Amino acid sequence: MIDVLVIGGGNAALCAALMAREAGASVMLLESAPREWRGGNSMHVRNLRCMHDAPQDVLVDAYPEEEFWQDLLKVTGGQTDEALARLVIRHSAGCRDWMRRHGVRFQPSLAGTLHLSRTNAFFMGGGKALVNAYYRSAEALGVQVRYRSPVASLELDGPRFRAAVLESGERIQARSCVLACGGFESNREWLREAWGRNERGEWPADNFLIRGTRFNQGTLLRFMQGAGADIIGDPSQSHCVAIDARAPLYDGGIVTRVDCVSLGVVLNREGQRFYDEGEDFWPKRYAIWGRLVAQQPGQVGFCIIDSKAVGRFMPPVFPGVKTDSLDALARALGLPEAAVLRTMADYNAACRGTDFDHTVLDGCHTEGLAPAKSHWARTIDKPPFYGYALRPGVTFTYLGLKTDASAAVHFGGQPSDNLFAAGEIMAGNVLGKGYTAGVGMSIGTAFGRIAGARAAGAALGKTTHADLA
Question: Domains plus CATH for the chain?
Answer without folding.
Answer: 2-183+218-236+398-460 (3.50.50.60), 239-393 (3.90.700.10)
